[in-house]
Amino acid sequence: xxxxxxxxxxxxxxxxxxxxxxxxxxxxxxxxxxxxxxxxxxxxxxxxxxxxxxxxxxxxxxxxxxxxxxxxxxxxxxxxxxxxxxxxxxxxxxxxxxxxxxxxxxxxxxxxxxxxxxxxxxxxxxxxxxxxxxxxxxxxxxxxxxxxxxxxxxxxxxxxxxxxxxxxxxxxxxxxxxxxxxxxxxxxxxxxxxxxxxxxxxxxxxxxxxxxxxxxxxxxxxxxxxxxxxxxxxxxxxxxxxxxxxxx
Length: 248
Hints:
This protein is an alpha/beta fold and about 250 residues long. About 30% of the residues lie in helices and about 20% in strands. α7 links the parallel β5 and β6.
């Protein structure tokens, strides 16, 4: 059974929990909200699949790796897409193609009160929620199994996430289903704490005396390409409906 003794050996991708046929593994948050697998020993049959699927093991399949990295630069032709994305809107161009072919797209969105989770989109309108960076670990609960179901149903799937998440999904899906799976990862510096984000939202709302209704982790339209600033819009803020805070 999988055991995480060092937090650095797990990214919370859910591959181990997803592959367990006995549902013996659940993802539990630590003190900062980072998700780690917890095994129910009464349900576990010690089959070892959770250890084999983990992208952090020494036997991770790298057979699809290129011998030499190929690097390209791209930017969307529609400047409106560029302005409302965090970089060059390449994800929008790629996901538009997938959706136009009848495929599905997975990316990071929000649930509850700006809690970051991965979601499934079948339309461009649904996909637009995935625009923009979310600098928080996303909850992947149930997503890997849904991706595998889509692939088994013959759908083309585009999945966007961190390198750890895409590696975990690649391992979980397996070679037979990879043909229609397109993985897009981001240049990642590590993901901040979900609970820190939750508490920060609560702090700002208490300070402003109003609930937050809109979040932008990197406001390009107001601050341009060079600056990294968060933007929060409040329902009512005593005449101030926006608060701009630098992202450190």
